């Protein structure tokens, strides 16, 4: 009889995580192939939602309490954003942006709940991130006025989320790397949409996005995985 066992421990748990990873990769690959081939429609939109929805199921299965609520909220917002941004209606862009904004707010709430005071390295990176946010706001200042305010708000929130990820105590900086890759994904998307065409911009954007979500959840499981009683 064992009193406690960490979620994620044991061969069965590892197999289960590998299974979820396989579904994630297959869903991501299916969407990217359809995107590259110019295929549109409900099948592509559904395929786009599969990877992050798979992470959502994994979080609901493995995590608990406040962490579970925040991660589930973040992933649910992302799934909604995935669907809205893949539909062929430009008017839905702001709603897709709002869905991702809500997701980032859940991530931000979680990260700052467990954040520690910054050291020298964290302070330097935070200053760089603030400068980056200001540069991005300036760069996109010429876009359509009705979109500029939502974009500014989005930039501020995702940069704050990334700073929060940096400040979470962990044996590595995987959580921060995931959040930073998320920013890179959004920069490619925004430049491609508002400024200049980026060669294979959508492929790069989505590949970075899927990678970022996977890394964030993998890091979160390593940091906050709960214990379950096993009889």
Proportion of β residues? under 5%
- How many structurally independent domains? 1
Largest β sheet strand count, sense and barrel closure: 2 strands, antiparallel
Widest beta sheet: strand line-up: 1-2
Q: Which structural category fits the helices and strands?
A: mainly alpha
Q: What radius of gyration results from the CA coordinates? A: 18 Å
- The span between the termini is 6 Å
Q: What is the H/E string?
A: EHHHHHHHHE
Q: pLDDT below 50 for ≥5 consecutive residues: which ranges?
A: 1-15, 227-231
The percent of residues in helical segments reads over 70%
Number of discrete helical segments: 8
Overall residue-averaged pLDDT value:
89
Describe this protein's structure:
With 231 residues, the chain is mainly alpha-helical. It has one domain. It has eight helices and two strands, in the order E-H-H-H-H-H-H-H-H-E. Helix 1 (11-37) runs antiparallel to helix 2, helix 4 (93-113) runs parallel beside helix 6 (145-167) and helix 7 runs antiparallel to helix 8.
């Amino acid at each position: 009889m064992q009193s406690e066992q960490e979620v994620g421990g044991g061969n069965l748990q590892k197999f289960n995580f590998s299974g979820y990873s396989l579904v994630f990769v297959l869903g991501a690959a299916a969407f990217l192939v359809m995107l590259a081939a110019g295929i549109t429609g409900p099948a592509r939109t559904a395929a786009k939602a599969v990877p992050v929805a798979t992470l959502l199921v994994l979080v609901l299965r493995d995590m608990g309490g406040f962490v579970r609520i925040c991660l589930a909220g973040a992933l649910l917002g992302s799934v909604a954003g995935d669907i809205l941004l893949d539909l062929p209606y430009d008017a839905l862009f702001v709603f897709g942006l709002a869905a991702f904004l809500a997701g980032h707010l859940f991530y931000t709430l979680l990260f700052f709940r467990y954040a520690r005071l910054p050291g020298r390295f964290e302070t330097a990176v935070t200053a760089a991130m603030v400068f980056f946010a200001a540069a991005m706001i300036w760069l996109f200042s010429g876009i359509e006025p009705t979109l500029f305010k939502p974009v500014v708000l989005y930039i501020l929130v995702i940069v704050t989320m990334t700073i929060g990820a940096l400040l979470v105590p962990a044996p590595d900086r995987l959580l921060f790397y995931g959040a930073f890759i998320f920013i890179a994904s959004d920069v490619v998307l925004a430049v491609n949409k508002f400024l200049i065409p980026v060669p294979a911009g959508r492929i790069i954007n989505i590949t970075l996005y899927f990678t970022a979500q996977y890394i964030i959840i993998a890091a979160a499981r390593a940091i906050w995985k709960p214990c379950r009683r096993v009889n």
